[in-house]
UniProtKB/TrEMBL annotation:
Positions of transmembrane segments: none
Entry protein name: Putative amino acid aldolase or racemase
Source organism phylogeny: Bacteria, Pseudomonadati, Pseudomonadota, Gammaproteobacteria, Alteromonadales
Domain D-serine dehydratase-like stretches: 263-351
Native source organism of the sequence: Shewanella psychrophila
Keyword Chaperone set for record: no
Cited InterPro entries: Ala_racemase_N, D-amino_acid_metab_enzyme, D-ser_dehydrat-like_dom, D-ser_dehydrat-like_sf, PLP-binding_barrel
GO molecular function: D-serine ammonia-lyase activity
Name of a matching Pfam family: D-ser_dehydrat
Gene Ontology biological process terms from the UniProt entry: D-serine catabolic process
Record keywords, A-Z: Lyase
Domain of life from the UniProt record: Bacteria
Length: 368
C-alpha cells in the first residue's frame, strides 16, 4: 500500500527516522554510564516499547496507571508509573496489577504521606510490597515534595509502613525540556537539580537513606547531568520528535535541533481553497494538537498553518504561491507528538511513500 491509498487525516511514522532516533538515544545514554527508561506516554504502543527494550532500555515509564495496565498486559514487566495516584480505587488497581503479574516489577511515584499509607494498607492486605519513588520538587512547581526535612520524613514513613518499600527519587524538570538554546537549556536543567544531589550526599547518605534509583531527565535535557548521580533517564519524545522540539536548537548553536529527526507526521488533504492566499485542509485541532504551538507543513516554508477549529486547518500561502489543488495531499509535522498521537487509534509506519505496517495505539485515552 502507498500513501495514496490512505484516507486522511492519518497519523504516520517515518520508520527510518524513528529507528535512527531509537538507536541514537540508547547509545548516547549508555555511553554516559546511565540507564535509559523511556517514557512511553509519547507512543502508547506496546510493540514500540518492546523495541526500546530490545535495544537496551532498562524498563519503561508510563504517565498513568491505565497505561501501565496496557503495557503489562502486553508482557512488559519493568514499569515506573511517574504520576502519583490517589483514592482507594487507584490503590486497589495498583495492587491488582501486582497480583495479576507477580513476576513484574512495578514502581509507583508518590509525594505525600497519604499515598504511602493508602498504598501500604491495600498492599499489606494483599500480602505484597509495592516499591515507591518519591518525587521531589525540581523547579516545575507541579508535583514533588520539598528537598529537606519533608523528604526525609516521607522516606522514614515508607520505611516504617508495611506493604511499601523505598526505592529512590524522581526528579523531573519537564518545564525545561523546550528551553531554546542548547547551552542555556543544559545550564537551567542542571541548576534545577544540583541541590537535590547535594542534599543526598550531605544528609541522606549519612543517614543511610540514600536512594538506589534517581530517575529523571528528558529528551531536551538528558545531557545536562553528567557527574550528578542520575541512575536512569526518562526521555520519551525522542522516538518521534515534533515541531516544538525541532525549534529548541542544537549544540552547535543553530536554531534547529537536529539531534533527532522528525519521524511523526500527519497526512492531510486540501479540501477547500476559498482565496488565492488561503486554503483549508481536513486536519484541525482534533488531530493536530496546538498546545505547543502550530504544526508545520513539511518542507513548505511558503505555507503557514493556522488552526481553523476542530476539523479544519487553515493554510496561509505566500504572496507568490502558485496555489494548491483540491484533493492535494500535504505532510504535517505536529507541534506536540504526545497530544497529537492521543487523538488517533492507528499509527502507520512508512518508508518513503510505502505503508509498511501499522499499530493499534493501545494506550490511547488511558489517562486513568
Amino acid at each position: 500500500m502507498t500513501l495514496d491509498n490512505l484516507d486522511t487525516p492519518a497519523l504516520l511514522v517515518d520508520l527510518d527516522a524513528m529507528d535512527a532516533n531509537l538507536v541514537a538515544m540508547q547509545q548516547r545514554v549508555s555511553a554516559k554510564g546511565v540507564k535509559l527508561r523511556p517514557h512511553t506516554k509519547a507512543h502508547k504502543i506496546p510493540a514500540l516499547a518492546m523495541k526500546q527494550l530490545s535495544l537496551g532500555a532498562e524498563g519503561i515509564c508510563t504517565a498513568k496507571l491505565g497505561e501501565a495496565e496496557v503495557m503489562a498486559e502486553a508482557g512488559i514487566e519493568d514499569i515506573l508509573i511517574t504520576t502519583p495516584i490517589a483514592n482507594p480505587i487507584k490503590y486497589q488497581r495498583l495492587v491488582a496489577l501486582h497480583l495479576a503479574y507477580p513476576e513484574g516489577k512495578f514502581c509507583q511515584v508518590v509525594d505525600h504521606a497519604d499515598h504511602i499509607l493508602g498504598i501500604g494498607k491495600y498492599a499489606m492486605d494483599a500480602g505484597i510490597t509495592v516499591e515507591l519513588l518519591i518525587e521531589v520538587e525540581s523547579g516545575q512547581q507541579r508535583c514533588g515534595v520539598a528537598v529537606g526535612e519533608p523528604l526525609v520524613t516521607l522516606i522514614e514513613l515508607i520505611q516504617a509502613t508495611d506493604g511499601v518499600s523505598y526505592r529512590g527519587i524522581q526528579a523531573y524538570s519537564g518545564h525545561l525540556q523546550h528551553v531554546k538554546g542548547f547551552n542555556e537549556r543544559q545550564a537551567q536543567a542542571r541548576t534545577a537539580v544540583v541541590g537535590i544531589f547535594e542534599f543526598i550526599d550531605s544528609h541522606l547518605r549519612p543517614m543511610n537513606l540514600a536512594p538506589d534509583v534517581i530517575s529523571g531527565g528528558g529528551t531536551g535535557t538528558y545531557e545536562a547531568y553528567d557527574g550528578l548521580g542520575f541512575t536512569e533517564i526518562q526521555a520519551g519524545s525522542y522516538i518521534f520528535m515534533d515541531a516544538a522540539y525541532r525549534g529548541i536548537g542544537n549544540r552547535e548553536g543553530r536554531a534547529i535541533n537536529d539531534e533527532f529527526s522528525n519521524a511523526l507526521k500527519v497526512w492531510t488533504t486540501v479540501i477547500s481553497h476559498p482565496t488565492k492566499e488561503r486554503a483549508v485542509v481536513d486536519a484541525g485541532m482534533k488531530c493536530l494538537s496546538i498546545d505547543m504551538g502550530m504544526p508545520l507543513v513539511e518542507d513548505r516554508e511558503d505555507i503557514r498553518y493556522q488552526t481553523g477549529g476542530d476539523e479544519h486547518g487553515i493554510l496561509h500561502l505566500a504572496d507568490n504561491h502558485a496555489g494548491l489543488a483540491i484533493g492535494q495531499r500535504l505532510m504535517m509535522l505536529p507541534s506536540h507528538c504526545d497530544t497529537t498521537l492521543n487523538s488517533y487509534s492507528t499509527l502507520y509506519g512508512i518508508r518513503g511513500d510505502r505503508v509498511i505496517n501499522s499499530w493499534d495505539i493501545a494506550g490511547r485515552g488511558r489517562s486513568d
